[in-house]
Amino acid sequence: MKKISIILVVCLLVFTNVFSQIKNSEIMAFQNVKTESINVDGTLFYYRKLGASNDGIPVIFLNHLGATLDNCDPRIMDGMATRHQIIPFDNRGIGATKGTTPKTIAEMAKDAISFIKALGYEKVDLMGFSMGAFVAQEIVLQQPQLVRKMIMTGTGPAGGIGIDKVTPITYKDMLKGYLTFRDPKFYLFFNQNSNGKAAAKAFLKRIKERKENRDKKIRLGSFGNQLDAIKAWGQQKPQDLSVIKQPVLIANGDNDKMVPSSNTYDLAKRISNSELIVYKDSGHGGIFQNHEEFVKSALAFLNK
């Protein structure tokens, strides 16, 4: 009888542990992680924090044109969170964060720096996609001591070829999306062949996984300010990127229509301590189309 009781206790402990692990794994997913806020110079900035950081250095994720927290790819967020704490956020005037969205990338970077410092971090890794990687460049140029490593995807340098043409390209595909009842990212981020269309459908399905407590949609004025900032970034003089000494991982598709892929090669040449990944048969959203491979490369880069 005593042996049976011991066995029952052991089974109960094992079951409790397994249940706890399952519950924790459910919590530790981007689709249901809670949204938090922090006061940054009088404005509440909204963010989500996923995963744990063993070294105390989080990965700050900087998002793309028109994106709120709900536009982050859950597979990339979940993948990064297996080894690192990743923190995407809504910058000023975006999603639930109030205020007026800046019309320059430099001002966006200042807001991002203020957000990082408000969280109490003295050193972070940066991961930016598209416009977010423009902001990442500005952050490291403004405050290099704040950044340990950088991952920049779907992006290019200030003054890069074709970047100032993002507005007409975006509006054209927004109209196409409206006429075909599709999200414009179906056209903007992916090649319009069989591989690209399949990747687009999978990506757009993933970003709808979160059913509750979704972020607020971007406001039209904020979207317009972002477009103005991107155009100004594309028209400004090239910056001296040789001063960036941090390790940098650069990735893009080989057929980026928003930030032409030639900018990706140019960026890698101008940053001495950089690694370059170019995904074949991929567009602006190359990291989304190749998310499994990208996460492996990103984790390997950060863990060196």
UniProtKB/TrEMBL annotation:
InterPro entries: AB_hydrolase, AB_hydrolase_1, AB_hydrolase_fold. The keyword Transferase does not apply. This is Alpha/beta hydrolase. The lineage of its organism: Bacteria, Pseudomonadati, Bacteroidota, Flavobacteriia, Flavobacteriales. GO terms for molecular function: hydrolase activity. Residues 58-289 form the AB hydrolase-1 domain. It comes from Flavobacterium alvei. Gene3D superfamilies: alpha/beta hydrolase. Transmembrane segments: none annotated. The keyword Repressor does not apply.
